[in-house]
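Message: I would love a firmer grasp of how sequence relates to backbone shape in proteins. Thank you; the sequence and its tokens follow:
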Amino acid sequence: MRQRIEDASIELAWIPALQKDSRTRNVHASTAIEGNPLTLAEVRALAEDPDSPRTVPRSGREVVNYLAGLRYVEQHSADKRITEQGLLGLHRILGNGVMDQGAEGEYRTIRMQVGPHRPADPAEVPRLMDELMEWWNGPSIELSPVITSAVIHHRLETIHPFADGNGRAGRAVALWELYRRGFDKHHIFSVDDYYWEDRPAYYAALAFAQTGGEDLTSWLEYSAEGIRQTLERVWSRIQTVNVGGSVRIVLRPRQERLLKLLAVQGSMAPAEIWEALGVSRQGAMNLINPMVDAGLVEKVGTKKTGRYKLRTP
């Protein structure tokens, strides 16, 4: 499924729109898991204008922070090594101005109880995090990123290295691993939606593995199912595009071929299009017009000399 998505989306002009949609969905879901009351529409509004006035400063700040955190992860997705300073930098962004206890970008110095789970003594946190970072930057490369992202996510939640914001940090580093390993090279997967839709199941899966003698089988199965469902939803969004308005279009094979041709050629005249696709003039227009209405393609030039090109999002 992942390969099908890569093959279908790699040349499409609307990848930025999918990236924006994925980012806002991940932000909404991950902050909502922690009790943030903002709706997806409100999160989208903040993503468009993060400096706009907010009636609930704390909830708005959490969202703006997570948006910045995901951008940080995207910017560092090509890093070959994840450093401790890089991880602390991510937490500093996520926790800016919204920490209930402790300091952002610093390991905790207090003991904690998280439901039935009692994380390690604070004095043990630096050593445990060093071990996690060593595994992340070394032996983990031999495993599928589907597995390693889940292990890193779970291990960070189990160690609970920060006084606050561990849930958001854990979900962000799980995405970071999918990006870093190239599993989601376009950053269009919104895995956190899966956790948010059944938050009790998410917490139960984490807790079961934490009390199960470090046997992560059930957690890995749960996480893999989440990625599978995420891939299916992305594939559905690729098949049914909704860009820049209310017009929806289900791409037909010749329309997918035309998008790839335009990506290579830059622009094409109508005659070039119907010749390349092996259709009549009217047949070509029947393919092009819905794509223009959906915002995928635009016409440039005069009426007589006009050419079609991919619309820049």
